[in-house]
Every structure is written in C-alpha cells, then in structure tokens.
Specification:
The complex is a heterodimer of chains A (271) and B (213). An eight-stranded mixed β-sheet of chain A has the order 3-4-2-5-1-6-7-8, sandwiched between helices. Helix content of chain A is 42%, strand content 16%. Chain A has helices spanning 16-29, 46-49, 60-64, 70-73, 99-112, 126-133, 146-162, 164-167, 183-187, 194-201, 213-221, 225-228, 233-245, 261-266; strands spanning 3-8, 34-38, 75-76, 83-86, 115-119, 137-142, 173-181, 204-210. The longest helix of chain A is centred in the middle third of the chain and has 17 residues, at 146-162. With 271 residues, chain A is α/β, with parallel strands linked by helices. Chain B folds into two domains: 3-78; 106-211, 3 Solenoid (Pectate Lyase C-like). Chain B is built from two helices and 14 strands; from the N terminus they run βαβαββββββββββββ. In chain B, helix 1 links the parallel strand 1 and strand 2 (33-37). The radius of gyration of chain B is 19 Å and the shape is elongated. The chains are: A alpha/beta (271), B mainly beta (213). Chains A and B meet through helix 7 of A and loops of B.
C-alpha cells in the first residue's frame, strides 16, 4: 500500500507544483514508484513542469467520471520509468470532480505506487479539499513572508479537520517545506526567519529550498529541477526532503549566501 | 438591528418561498443578524434542527431563536449570543473539538494550536489553549482565556457578561482582546507589553494589562 501525500499551501505561487515535481522525481530516482497527480483542474501546470504536455490524452476527470481507465491516463516519464503523471483537465473546472470518483482513483493509485503525490490547487475551496481528502501526510509549502505563513496556518487547520484521517479522529502528518528562501535577504533580515515560521506553524520541518535560477530554468525546460540539475542547491535540498519523507534522519541545512571572490572584494553593484 | 424570520408549516413550502424571495434580492440577508421565531411551528414538528441548518446553509446568520419547544432535539445549541465585537460577514469555522463525555463541563482544554480562521467558542467557562492562537484565529470564552503559547489572534473573555473574566498568555501579541464587551485592538495596546507574559483584566470600563513574573 502506497502513501498518499498532498502538497498544499493555501496561497498561490509559492511553489506547490515545482515542489510536487521535484519531490516526486527525487523519490523516483531513489527507486520508489511514484505517481504525481495534478488536482488543479482548469489551471493545470504539472504537465508543463514535468515536460509531458504534448503527451496528455486522458486526464483525472476522465478517470473520475469513468470515461478512461487509470492506466490510459497515466503518463510515464521518459527520463525515469518509476515516475508517472496523472494530469488534470484544462477544459473543465473543479466541479467536475466527485468525492467518490476521487476516492476511487486514489485507492487505485495507492495499490499501484509507493507514493502518490497530489498537487493541490491554491485556495481552500473544493479543489483543495478534494486534493487533501485522502492524504496520509501533507507537505505545506510556505514562503518566508507573512501572508504565506498565515495562509499555511489556515490550511493546516483545514488539514486537521477536513481530511478523511481527521474525520476518523486520526492525525495527519504535516511537514513544512520553506521555499524561495533567499539567503541574502535572510541575512539582511528582510524575510521572516525560518525559526519564526516554524514557531508560528509548529509543524515538522521538511526542508528549506533556496531561491534559485535553476528552479525556474528547469520549469521552463519542462523538467523537475531534481532531474535537470541534480547537484544544484535547491535539488540537494529536495533530495534531503525526500529522504526525510522516507523516515530518514537528515540534518536540515539552512542555505547560506554564497558570494564569488570578486563579489566579496567589491560588494554587489546594483545598476 | 436583527431581522426576525417566522417560519410556517409545512416547512418545505416555506423554504421554497424563502428561496424565491432570496433569488429576487440576493443580498438581502448579507451580514444581517437574524432571529428565528419558531412560535408558529407546532410542537410535534420533526427536524427543526435540520431546518435551522438549512437556513444557515443559505447564508443566513442566525443569532438566536425564539419560541422553541423544549422537547425539540439539540435545542441547547440554538441560542447563539453575539460575541463582544464581531466584524460582519466573517467566516467562522469551528474546529472539531472533542467535548467532554458526561455531566457539567466548565473548562475546555485544547492541546493543539488554534489555527488562522478557526474559532473556538465556549460559553460555559474557561478555555485553555496549550499551543498558540494564530493571527486570524479567535478564542471566545464565557470565563477566562488561558494561552500557553503566543496569543497572536483574538481573545474574548467573559463573552456572555462576566466582568471578572481575565485573559492570560505566555507571549502577548494579540490582534484584539475583549472582556465583557470592552475591547481593545492591537493599535491601542501598549508596545511595552508585546512579547511578554501578561494578564489582562477589566478595571471599570478599561482593560488593564500587566506583566506576569
């Protein structure tokens, strides 16, 4: 039986889709069988970040509504055969998802894969609730700034009350993934400190992903950053996070500002 | 000012008429407090509790009921006194709290943080929160409010008229606090108290904050 993970945040644009792809690929590289599922019906993106947009035939809605079999809709990654994508529909909206249909699809995925990673849409409405519904654990993606932290706090409260696990009186595991962490701005106290974010949200820290051009570059190329440049700082942070998800104890590294020699000598010149 | 709704039997027909009315003027009930007068509903009527839920699902903000028959099920939860200070139209979501099993409970202990958007309302006595109360969360108690983490949201003590109620917290960063209807927002709170362990009590018509040592 696989483990179902939801990647969620409340707020949009914090890095849910990027993190879903990066964590999925990181786990898959470690030999685990992984399915990433796009729940952002109507605003799908995961297919782009995974570089599978030209291969989508059937999608989550087709499977939920019984028009296609799960095996027809799953797209196996060309670079990693342990990684599969279940894309969302771009032409429908979240109302096309039914609770029973989602439960059935997730149950089927759980049978086939070691990890089922659900990429939640932003917001706290139906789409987000359905994405988290079957989750065993949640990765709460947060940027180190106040609005993102408050929205994450809200979504944690919802995870504790609206998931099937919560309704059964069990606790859902919640992990904090701090993304777009800018070491330079952190050093200048222009961002919330990770300790403060942790203190406010009081859930377990899964990792700190530094802000990096590599992430953007990988997304634009249609590849999870952990596949595109596995040795860059954000990828290393994602690999560590994936190991923590598997239960390994790995120290969390706080990204530090790396300055080149010339920069250190002359400081940073801003035009 | 509150509106009074007086439902008539059969309730379904009455609801249909209400729906038709709400379609004509969709914003009619927006943020308005509503009292439901159940005097016209016969005592043997079943499913009045569900009926009230149906009203709430239509976005009607019920603050109280009148003329309810004591035999109806779930009646004790129908009184909905207004908190000391509320913004209209805000969203309230009650976390799934386990209520104590039997007999009279007069204290509520919450051993997890109160998250943004959650609202804990406990009229019968004190509320103790072992974690923090987040920005955008609120705790309302008929008695005192105790927060062992950081109080960042709202704390409302003595909500149904208890000037002796107090607010205690280990780290004070509240957005709003109120005791017995006297409230203060963060802007009016003395900066020197921020981040400290404090207690708040009512002194006449004023909130007094003092540092706990």
């Amino acid at each position: 039986m696989g483990k179902v993970l939801v990647v969620t945040s409340g707020k949009g644009g914090v890095g849910k889709t990027t993190s879903t792809a990066a964590l999925g690929a990181a786990l898959a590289r470690g030999g685990e069988n992984v399915a990433v599922v796009d729940f952002d019906v109507g605003l799908r993106n995961l297919d782009l970040v995974m570089g599978a947009e030209r291969r989508v035939v059937f999608d989550l809605i087709n499977v939920v509504q019984g028009d296609a079999k799960l095996s027809q809709a799953l797209i196996r990654d060309k670079r990693l055969d342990t990684l599969s994508l279940l894309p969302a529909s771009q032409t429908r909206d979240k109302d096309a998802l039914t609770t029973e249909g989602v439960d059935k699809v997730i149950a089927e995925l759980r049978e086939k894969f070691d990890w089922v990673i659900c990429d939640s849409p932003a917001g706290i409405e139906r789409g987000a609730l359905l994405a988290m519904r079957n989750a065993d654990a949640a990765v709460v993606v947060t940027n180190p700034e106040v609005s993102s932290v408050r929205d994450s706090d809200r979504i944690i409260g919802i995870l504790d009350s609206k998931t099937l696990k919560a309704e059964r009186g069990e606790r859902i595991d919640k992990y904090l993934l701090v993304t777009r962490f800018d070491p330079g701005r952190a050093a200048r106290n222009e961002m919330l400190k990770t300790e403060d974010v942790l203190e406010i949200l009081s859930i377990q820290l899964l990792g700190i992903i530094p802000e990096s051009e590599e992430v953007l570059k990988a997304s634009n190329l249609g590849a999870p950053v952990t596949l595109n440049s596995p040795t860059c700082a954000p990828s290393r942070a994602y690999f560590d996070a994936a190991r923590r998800l598997k239960g390994e104890i790995v120290d969390v590294v706080v990204p530090l500002e790396r300055k080149g020699l010339m920069e250190r000598l002359f400081g940073r010149r801003v035009a | 000012m509150a509106l009074v709704l007086a439902p008539e039997v059969p309730l379904n027909d009455w609801l249909n008429a209400l729906d038709a009315q709400m379609e004509r003027s969709p914003n009619f009930f927006d943020a308005r407090p509503v009292v439901v007068d159940l005097g016209g509903v016969p005592h043997e009527q079943q499913g009045v509790g569900e009926f009230l839920q149906l009203l709430e699902r239509r976005g009607i903000r019920i603050i109280g009921t009148e003329g309810a028959h004591p035999a109806w099920e779930g009646i004790e939860s129908w009184g909905r006194p207004l908190p000391a200070s509320t913004k209209p139209g805000r969203e309230v979501e009650t976390p799934n709290l386990k209520s104590g099993g039997s007999g009279e409970v007069n204290a509520l202990v919450i051993d997890q943080p109160v998250r943004s958007g959650q609202s804990v309302v406990f009229e019968r006595g004190d509320v103790t929160v072992l974690g923090s109360v987040a920005s955008g969360a609120e705790v309302m108690a008929g008695g005192s409010v105790h927060v062992y983490g950081t109080l960042r949201g709202r704390a409302i003590a003595g909500m149904s008229g208890n000037p002796g109620a107090r607010i205690f917290c280990r780290k004070f960063q509240a957005e709003l606090m109120a005791i017995d209807g006297v409230y203060q927002t963060a802007d009016d709170m003395p900066a020197g108290m921020l981040g400290k362990a404090v207690q708040v009590r009512l002194d006449g018509e004023q909130l007094k904050i003092s540092i706990l040592e």
